[in-house]
Amino acid sequence: MSGPNDVVANESVSVADADMPLYGAMGMTFMQFPALTTLSQSDAEVIVSGVPFDMATSGRSGSRFGPQGVRQASVNLVWEGARWPWTFALDDHLNVADAGNVKFKHGEPQTLVDNLEAHISQILNAGKSALTFGGDHFITLPVLRAYAKKHGPLALIHFDAHTDTYSGGSKYDHGTIFHHAVQEGLVDTEHSLQIGIRTAYTVENHPFEVLDAAWVGDHGPAETLKRIKQRVGDKKAYVSFDIDGLDPAFAPGTGTPVVAGISIDCALKIIRGLQGLNLVGMDVVEVAPAYDHAEITSLAGATLALEYLYVLAANKIA
User: Fold this and answer.
1) Cα separation of 247 and 16, whole Å?
2) What is the spatial distance between Cα 318 and Cα 313, in angstroms, rounded to a whole number?
3) Measured between alpha carbons, how far is 236 from 232 in angstroms, rounded to an integer?
4) Peptide bond before 135: cis, by omega within 30 degrees of 0?
5) C-alpha distances in angstroms, 163 versus 196, 198, 208?
6) Cβ-Cβ contacts under 8 Å for 23 (sequence gap 6 or more)
7) ∠ CA(25), CA(30), CA(33), 5° rounding?
8) What is the residue-wise DSSP string for the chain?
9) In terms of Cα–Cα distance, which of 240, 254, 219 is closest to 57?
10) Which of 5, 110, 247, 302 has an alpha carbon 20 to 30 Å from 254's alpha carbon atom?
11) Residue pair 101/50 in contact by the 8 Å Cβ criterion
12) What string of pLDDT tens digits covers the 318 residues of the chain?
């Protein structure tokens, strides 16, 4: 016997149009981009991936939830047909798909290293580029290894409070990644910069040009962009954005916050101004939603990533 609330199988039921569900699917993929099914058959030019890994962190853990936080916060950005100040809709010029999260064995960091490098290599070998959400900053090292195999040493545009060039850490350490990247020849230091730095590092023989946070604050995004473009030139460039490059007023949800950072307005103007450079990939890392307030750090990460995608689209149009 069926009750008044039971669904009767043979009864004709009117179903609402769910082509654009308002809430049911929100936050499942970044910007509600299609979920990737088969890489080889996808027409996406950029593949989004999450890396829920924070076993290399030296501060507060929790960035394993960064990909989830960024995807959820991106819900706030899907309503605009054309994001200000751009004059076109992103999906009119750039196809993007979300591949979900990279899988690895918890407690066995080397499985993350191997699986992530292989995952990014598959994306690149399919003729696509990667937008990757961490996770702690260690994830950038396997990503750069895959990129260097495909493209050779890259120009690195690195936003951070820390240089991450420290040589005394462990094998899995988010503070040593660019030391190893230099040692392994993954980046072209003569064409690379670090932006927003405001913690101690050995200045003598430092491999990168540094535009520290005080310099950026004094000179502004226009002068910062001028230095970036002079340095990078026409080299293939990879952008790595540690969310703690922003001041904690704009990004409290991170493991190693450092005051006196750059503002989200300044950062967006810099990312937007990268139009014209030969950009081949980006990651946004160190978002730790447990320390966030009102999702502002996750929203900052999502917005920076979306701005980068608009730059790629604008480069296609130009």
Assistant:
1) 45
2) 9
3) 8
4) yes
5) 9, 9, 9
6) none
7) 75
8) ---TTPPPTTS-------SS-SSTTTTSSGGGPPBP--GGG---SEEEEEE---TT-SS---GGGHHHHHHHHGGGGTT-SS-TT-SS-GGGT--EEEEEEPP--TT-HHHHHHHHHHHHHHHHHTT-EEEEEESSGGGHHHHHHHHHHHH-SBEEEEE-SS----SSS-SS-TTSHHHHHHHTT-B-GGG-EEES--S----TT-SSEEE-HHHHHHHHHHHHHHHHHHHHTTSEEEEEEEGGGB-TTT---BSS--SS-B-HHHHHHHHHTTTTSEEEEEEEE-B-GGG-STTHHHHHHHHHHHHHHHHHHHHHH-
9) 254
10) 110
11) yes
12) 445 454 444 455 555 555 555 555 666 899 999 999 999 999 999 999 999 999 999 889 999 999 999 999 999 999 888 999 999 999 999 999 999 999 999 889 999 999 999 999 999 999 999 999 999 999 999 999 999 999 999 999 999 999 999 988 788 889 899 999 999 999 999 999 999 999 999 999 999 999 999 999 999 999 999 999 999 999 999 999 999 999 999 999 999 999 999 999 999 999 999 999 999 999 999 999 999 999 999 999 999 999 999 999 999 998
User: Which two tokens mark 313?
Assistant: 């689209």
This prediction has a pTM of: 0.92
**Cα(first)–Cα(last) distance of the chain, in Å?**
66
Which residues make Cβ contacts (< 8 Å) with residue 29, sequence separation at least 6?
35, 48, 71, 98, 100
Nearest-angstrom CA–CA distance, 248 and 216: 16
CA 222 to chain centre: 22
Half-sphere exposure of residue 27, counting CA atoms within 13 Å on the CB side? 14
| Cβ–Cβ < 8 Å for 152, 195 | no
